[in-house]
Every structure is written in C-alpha cells, then in structure tokens.
C-alpha cells in the first residue's frame, strides 16, 4: 500500500484539470456511456452521480482534460463501483487517457479486463484495493509508457475493506510472471504489488534479482505480503534511486533497516508483522 503522503501527492496530481478546456463531444458521449455501463451505488457516489450536470465534461468530478479538451485523467476511486468494466467498455475507447484510478471499489473478484491494452498512453494506473481477482492481465505488458503501476490488494489492517479480503480471489502473477511484468515495463519507476501472489517458488526467492535487473532506476517499490522469501541478492543494493520501499509480511532473511542506511529512503517498512 502507498504511504499516505505519497498517495495523497499522486491523487492531487490526478485532479488537476484545465478548467478552461472545452471537452470534445465524442469523448463526453463515451463518458456518459461509461456511466450507464458501470454498476455503482449512486447515493455513495460523489463523482459519477454528478456527471452531465454541465455541458463541459472537463468540469465533471474525477475528469481531467488537456488544453485541447481530450480526457486525459479519470479518477473514479471510492465510487462504490461493483461491475461494468468488461472488454468492450467505453472506458477503453478513451484513447488519450494518461491517468486511470479505479482504486477502492469492489469488482467482486473479476479479472482485470483485457481491454486495458487499448489505453496505450497510460502513464499512471491505479487498480489497488478494488477487489480484482485471478491472473494479472497480460495486456498490462503493452502499456509501455507506465510510470506508476499499483495493483495492490493487501487489505490487512484496514477494517473498512476487511470483508473484501475474506471473500476475494487474490490477484496472482503466474502468466505473466514477475519477470515478464517488469521485463516488459523496464522504464517503470514505481511498482506497488502488495498482496499480489507471486506463484512461482523460484521467483519468490529470486525476486530481488529480477527487480534489480530490469528496474535499475526504480524509486518506489512495495511488495508487502507477496510470499517472498530468501536473502536479498547483492544487485539489490545498486537500487540507489529508491525512496519508498516496503517488504513487510514476507519471509525474508537478514532484512533490517540498517542495511538501507546509505539509501535516501523517505518511507520504509520491513519485518514479518
């Protein structure tokens, strides 16, 4: 899970909009189609329920546009969404999207849609704590511009989402596996996979070699409760750009904060509890 100060910082960047932009008609229609497709609890919605109250969709809650009026940001976290994002969703026709946030919804263990591959301009993708389940979609590998990927689903310590943890089919990295994921997204500076099941016993031991080999410039890494074990490979100490690191609730040997004393880390958490 992202530390609060970093999560707030990222969210604040999501809500920056060009208030003087005029949205493009076909993209406004796509947003309205998306609203009709989504299954959500209207009384609990602060964004979707307000859409279409003005002609300019760039002024709608959760929507951000560039100076040309293209929808580039969609922040639908905490909207009580429980379904409606399938492979043919209108969401995946918003080809200018740079930032997509569906965190803290309840997709009831549905897999991440393969339609995500259509959003090739994405730089930020946050699907955390949204109760997605099953295999992580291989189509994420095609999102070469990603600068931040968060598909965490570790609900421990969060009473509000405890029932989701009890009923969910956790996300897992099998095919693609961890090496395929980071090997295809080598420019990724931020990776958050809390609670994602790394299924291969080889990768659960070799994860630090995989991360350091493919993401040498990573700045934020969170792998809480990913069933990792074993010592860290020496190559991990080359990741000098790390400022956020969380490895707790794994079975890692000899991981103590003193090891990272020479790192410029602003937030870290280790240990088994």
UniProtKB/TrEMBL annotation:
Keywords: Glycoprotein, Leucine-rich repeat, Membrane, Repeat, Signal, Transmembrane, Transmembrane helix
Membrane disposition: Single-pass type I membrane protein
SUPFAM superfamilies the record matches: L domain-like
InterPro entries noted in UniProt: LRR_dom_sf, LRR_N_plant-typ, RLP23-like
GO cellular component, one term: membrane
Short name of one Pfam family: LRRNT_2
Name listed for the protein in its UniProt record: Leucine-rich repeat-containing N-terminal plant-type domain-containing protein
Signal sequence segment: 1-21
Species: Salvia splendens (Scarlet sage)
Domain Leucine-rich repeat-containing N-terminal plant-type per the UniProt entry, residue ranges: 25-66
Main localization of the protein described in the UniProt heading: membrane
Keyword Membrane: yes
UniProt xrefs under PANTHER family: LEUCINE-RICH REPEAT RECEPTOR PROTEIN KINASE EMS1-LIKE-RELATED, RECEPTOR LIKE PROTEIN 30-LIKE
Lineage: Eukaryota, Viridiplantae, Streptophyta, Embryophyta, Tracheophyta
Subcellular location: Membrane
């Amino acid at each position: 899970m992202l530390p609060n100060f970093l999560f707030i910082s990222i969210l604040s960047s999501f809500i920056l909009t060009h208030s003087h932009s005029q949205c493009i008609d076909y993209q406004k229609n796509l947003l309205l189609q998306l609203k009709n497709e989504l299954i959500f609890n209207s009384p609990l919605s602060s964004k979707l329920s307000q859409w279409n109250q003005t002609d300019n969709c760039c002024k709608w809650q959760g929507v951000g546009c560039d100076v040309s009026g293209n929808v580039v940001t969609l922040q639908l976290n905490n909207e009580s969404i429980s379904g409606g994002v399938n492979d043919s969703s209108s969401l995946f026709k918003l080809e200018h999207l740079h930032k997509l946030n569906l965190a803290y919804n309840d997709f009831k263990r549905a897999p991440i849609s393969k339609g995500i591959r259509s959003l090739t301009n994405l730089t930020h993708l946050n699907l955390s704590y949204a109760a997605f389940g099953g295999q992580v979609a291989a189509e994420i590998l095609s999102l070469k511009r990603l600068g931040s990927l968060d598909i965490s689903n570790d609900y421990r310590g969060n009473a509000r989402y405890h029932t989701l943890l009890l009923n969910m089919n956790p996300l897992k990295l099998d095919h693609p596996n961890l090496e395929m994921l980071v090997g295809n997204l080598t420019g990724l500076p931020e990776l958050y996979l809390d609670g994602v099941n790394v299924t291969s016993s080889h990768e659960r031991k070799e994860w630090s070699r995989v991360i350091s080999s493919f993401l040498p410039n990573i700045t934020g890494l969170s792998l809480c409760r990913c069933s990792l074990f074993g010592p860290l490979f020496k190559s991990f100490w080359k990741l000098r750009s790390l400022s956020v690191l969380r490895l707790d609730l794994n079975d890692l040997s000899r991981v103590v904060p003193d090891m990272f004393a020479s790192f410029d880390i602003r937030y870290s958490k280790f240990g088994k509890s």
